[in-house]
Design brief:
By secondary structure, the protein is of the alpha/beta class. It has 11 helices and 6 strands. A hairpin with a 6-residue loop joins strand 5 and strand 6. The structure holds uracil. The site of uracil (URA) has 12 residues, from loops.
């Protein structure tokens, strides 16, 4: 009996972890037994993490209809563009209900660090620790990121950190393209308000979203690109995500080279030409 109870509690915890944290009916419904729609699927772009992304995160199907999504993206753009400060942007995200990730997240995870530092890091999505604390990169990946920052003489007072999505995807899966698209107007405004001198993209999803590329992170890491939206011209360096480095310590060597490039480039930006 006790074993049954433990098993049921474990199942309940797993369901909450997956984002099913609300009962919506008294009887279970087998949705797999329901007839599948015969409507042809709308074409849509592949997910940013469709290949070579964050292996520990499961993939989620992009199943939202496109038109309402376009309306939501336009609404997001209007709201984000009306924000004059980072505080406005954070508050606007707090009110924005059209990204479904918000419904299953505990906290908005906006940013951490010093927006005036000139150095902006963009990761993929908050995980469980970040969701609990409302701060990006506070879990194991964050600890490694802190060490990498220390290696180039920086910390969270001399760097600014955010993600392409502002809420934790349930079960730690990668954000879908649609979720990333809904957050993108806020992210672009975020970058515009921060006006960084240099951007580091952590992992495939961030690189895919900001650089609009499907190239694998292994191919593009360590190569300078530039970010040119909203009148900006900011050097961008894609590199491995710290979570990947935790699983593949042999890749730390390359990441170290990338961080050295960041250090050197920042020094050259500081030196009057
Ligand atoms: N991974 C990310 O991409 N972002 C976080 O904030 C934490 C882990």
């Amino acid at each position: 009996m006790m074993e049954d109870r433990d098993a049921l509690l474990a199942l309940l915890r797993w369901q909450v972890e997956m984002g099913a944290d609300e009962a919506i009916g008294d009887a279970p419904v087998n949705r797999l037994a329901e007839p599948v729609s015969r409507e042809p699927a709308e074409p849509r772009s592949p997910t940013p993490a469709a290949s070579g992304g964050m292996p520990e995160r499961a993939r989620a199907p992009s199943s939202l209809p496109l038109e309402p999504v376009q309306e939501s993206v336009s609404a997001a753009r209007r709201i984000a563009d009306a924000c004059a400060t980072l505080e406005d942007l954070r508050a606007a995200l707090g009110e924005f209900d059209q990204c479904t990730l918000k419904a299953t997240a505990t906290n908005l995870v906006f940013a951490d660090g010093n927006p005036a530092s000139g150095l902006m890091f963009i990761g993929e999505a908050p995980g469980a620790d970040e969701d609990r604390q409302g701060t990006p990169f506070v879990g194991q990946s964050g600890k490694l990121l802190d060490k990498m920052l220390a290696a180039i003489g920086r910390d969270r007072r001399s760097a600014y950190i955010t993600n392409i999505t502002f809420w934790r995807p349930p079960g730690n899966r990668a954000p879908t393209t649609l979720e990333a698209e809904l957050c993108l107007p806020f992210l672009e405004r975020h970058i515009q308000l921060v006006q960084p001198r240099l951007i580091v993209l952590l992992g495939k999803s961030a690189a895919a979203t900001i650089l609009e590329t499907q190239e694998g992170i292994t191919r593009i890491r360590g190569k300078w690109r530039s970010y040119g939206k909203n009148g900006l011209d900011v050097p961008v360096l894609p590199t491995y995500h710290p979570a990947y480095l935790l699983r593949q310590p042999s890749a730390k060597r390359d990441a170290w080279q990338d961080f050295l490039k960041v250090k050197t480039r920042l020094e050259s930006l500081d030196t009057p030409q």
